[in-house]
């Protein structure tokens, strides 16, 4: 019997357009290897569609909260529909950057020092006093980003204390809690981790070189603003460390099937994990497809294998 896969893309987050591009890429990749696949938005039509057309498995190509905060995965669990990727609990954990960083640190995985600051506390305690303490504690430069969110939205590098208030305001526009962490100058690296049945395996690291030095939303999705090297131009020992830390982060957070781990190789030679994405982008400029290509793999065949494992779990 043919396998029918439903790809969820779109949603109502700030990353809707990126998600639709990811969904179409996944659709084309699966159809190219003979998989019966269809695309659906995650709206009021979804549950009736799951009941009437019941897919054998779902691939979540939603970015932002709809695809990454665990809620949709919980609904799919309620419906008894298998899906590719981690379960709801692990998704919730990875989605909240401060919580994920705490687990990484407890697991002995290096990550830049940080503080999480809700907007209400920021206002109640006095913005100036709080910002002064942050700079005293963490130093400069700093990275300010939403505690929940992706695609570089609301993120900014702060090199001077005078820039910090504006960065916080920009961050709070996307989320009620800001994650402020030490900014580590160095080489930005992404390692995609996949598990096709033999345990979590790192794909070749991808090196990210944005023109303006910051991998923000425009640099991620605008052609010509970023150069990628796959595999990354790393010394063998550093490449091995990067791969090991990516798999360790994937495992520490309880992930499965696939993830993307973002790291930085500092100018000091140390490698640090910045965060983990449980619904990696699949667009023409996304990092997981670049890593798949660098590994000599076919994206459609890889996804079809992950679908098979999801169905077996179901």
UniProtKB/TrEMBL annotation:
Principal EC category: ligase
Residues that hold Mg(2+) 2 according to the record: 277
The ATP-grasp domain, residue ranges: 101-308
Single Gene Ontology MF annotation: metal ion binding
Pathway: Cell wall biogenesis; peptidoglycan biosynthesis
EC numbers, comma separated: 6.3.2.4
Main location: cytoplasm
A biological-process GO annotation: regulation of cell shape
PANTHER family: D-ALANINE--D-ALANINE LIGASE, D-ALANINE--D-ALANINE LIGASE B
Family: Belongs to the D-alanine--D-alanine ligase family.
UniProt-recorded name of the protein: D-alanine--D-alanine ligase
Source organism (scientific name): Rugosimonospora africana
